[in-house]
Amino acid sequence: MKLSLIPAPYEISYLPGFSRADAPVETATDSRLKNECFVIHIDGKITVRASSDAGFFYAKNLLEQIKFQCGQNIPNVHIKDIPKYSYRSFMIDSCRHFVTTENLKRMIDHCAKLRFNVFHWHLTDDQGWRAEIKKYPELTEIGSVRYGSNFGSEQNDEIHSGFYTQEEMREIVEYAHKNHMIVVPEIDMPGHVSALLASIPSLVCGDKKVEIKTRAGIFKDIICAGDDESYDILYDIFDEICAIFPDEYIHIGGDEAPKEQWKRCKVCQELMKKENLADEEELQGYFINRVKNYLSQKGKKVITWNESLNGGNLDKDITVQMWMDRKGLSAKSGNPVIVSDFFHMYMDYPYSMTPLKKVYEYNTDINSLVIGTDVPIWTEYVRNIEYMEYMCFPRYVAAAQSAWSIKKPPYSQFKAQLTELTDYFGVENAAKQEEWDPDIFTRLSGVINHFGAIAPVEAVRKHFTEKKM
Ligand code: ACM
Ligand code: ZN
Question: Are residues 67 and 158 in the same domain?
Fold first, then answer.
């Protein structure tokens, strides 16, 4: 009997005979094995070796997967497992639609079985600020409340609110740690900051009043990068964020920050002159580097979305998260890279656009500096946990196998194994095969419907002509 194991192990060899599933389990610490690696040997008894708690945790989960599949008699095997990437992340956007701590834990439970080891938590955006900051209570008093939601078919003027107290965020960190995940909070800047600017108006270029947004999009109000006071306020916020999130990384955003206001702002332009910055893209590099320098002193590493590379002056110790990078700067810059290409790895795109096979087969090895991958679920169109599970599963299974398995089997084999293991992953609302494996006509109409809801016809045409199907 051949086992179906997901994520696929690095090495598996079958030994003669079978053992009982309830055979005694012996564990032994083996310092020769690297962090997260493990060995399982089944031959009458079950022996597990690892050098870290994570390694033992993964081995225990894998034994459960084997028992799920085999029942009482399990084949004798020797399994050695090693992760491909050290950074295996999933991202949840808590801003466009608030996600309760209970539902975050539910997603963490699912993801722990898949050996994701990073929960990237998108906590701030134009449509809501979700993290309690004690020094600035207005961030949640004002910033976590929006009056209306205008996302596709959801059109209303109801209050949408919600934030996490510091205690709740610590509870999520503790829960993630128990599941051998770190938590990377994202405080997005200098763009995607309408909720921040509505709460603390002195951060904006000029003296414009900014509203919290009720719709999706890219908005031109951004943080004034020329004003020293902006940095002082951001550092206060990061002092509290760093005290809540003890793990090594902080994500400081950097995506989709239009530069019109910086071009017009006297204070920003003066700083550019003083610092010899050629254009506003360099000003973004300067801004991200400066915030990074502050966080480095606090012992943190910083992650930014790939747009921060546009100025060519981003410090090399910053990790770049590639999501939409037509110029390929992430692969060329020499910075560590996290890959989350939006055409292959965004879970909020419909299955018609990003079927399971497309997620599975995408080659994330864009260069030798890739430390891992991240699969985001943005929540403009994701209003509840049922739909979140539907969009993420089984695509998260494919993404997890790509992140973990050095020897990734062909898609046909993965698909067969997934069918056998669907119940093991226990995700109540996972998509069915006819949904994650749509025929071409369903794909065409699905893409048109998706773009029809959010983008002009030109975007549909581009999607097809660029052969991104
Ligand atoms: C992004 O999707 N704006 C990172
Ligand atoms: Zn300014």
Answer: no
- pLDDT, tens only, 104-126: 999 999 999 999 999 999 999 99
Q: What is the DSSP string of 162-223?
A: --B-HHHHHHHHHHHHHTT-EEEEEEEESSS-HHHHHH-GGGBSTT---PPPSB-S--S--B
Phi, psi of 415 (to 5 degrees): -60, -40
Q: Is 420 a catalytic residue?
A: no
93 and 74 assigned to the same domain = no
Q: Is 231 helix (H, G, I), strand (E, B) or coil?
A: helix
- H helical segments located in 266-383: 266-274, 280-297, 329-332, 342-345, 356-361
Q: Is residue 448 very low, low, confident or very high in pLDDT (cuts 50, 70, 90)?
A: confident
Q: What is the CATH number of the domain that holds 76?
A: 3.30.379.10
- Note whether residue 454 is domain-resident: no
Residue 125 among the catalytic residues: yes
Indicate if 305 and 392 belong to the same structural domain.
yes
pLDDT tier, 457 (very low <50, low <70, confident <90, very high otherwise): low
Q: How many domains does the chain have?
A: 2
154 is catalytic: no
Q: Tell me what the pLDDT averaged over the chain comes to.
A: 95
Domain identity same for 126 and 75 = no
Residue whose CA is closest, atom 3 of ligand 1?
255
pLDDT value, residue 207:
82
Identify the active-site residue in 97, 120, 180, 192. 192
The torsion of the CA quartet 174, 175, 176, 180, rounded to 10 degrees, works out to 90
Cα 138 to middle of ligand 2, angstroms: 22
| Confidence at 463, pLDDT banded by 50, 70, 90 | low
Residue of 81, 125, 255, 307 marked catalytic: 125
CATH number of the domain encompassing residue 153: 3.20.20.80
pLDDT tens-digit readout, 318-330: 999 999 999 999 9
User: Whose C-alpha lies nearest to ligand 1, atom 2?
Assistant: 323
Spacing, Cα 405 to ligand 2 middle (Å) = 46
Quick one: 159 and 18 in the same domain?
no
**pTM exceeds cut of 0.70:** yes
187, 342, 375, best to mutate for ligand 1 pocket (most atoms within 8 Å of CB): 342
Query: Among residues 43, 168, 256, 361, which one is catalytic?
Result: 256
**Residue 286 belongs to some domain of the structure:** yes
pLDDT at 173 over 60: yes
Q: Which of 17-21, 343-347, 457-461 has the lowest mean pLDDT?
A: 457-461
CA of 261 to the centre of ligand 2 (A): 7
Does 469 have pLDDT greater than 60? no
Contact of 433 with 419, CB cutoff 8 Å: yes
Range of the domain at 269: 89-436
Same domain, 192 and 270: yes
Closest to 38 (Cα-Cα) out of 65, 69, 11:
11
